[in-house]
Amino acid sequence: MSTPAEMFLKHVANVIAERSTQYGDAGHNMAAVAARWSSTLGREVTAVQVVLCLLDLKLSRLAHDPAHEDSAIDVCGYAALLRELVETAKPEGR
Question: Tell me, what's the pLDDT at 86?
Answer without folding.
Answer: 93
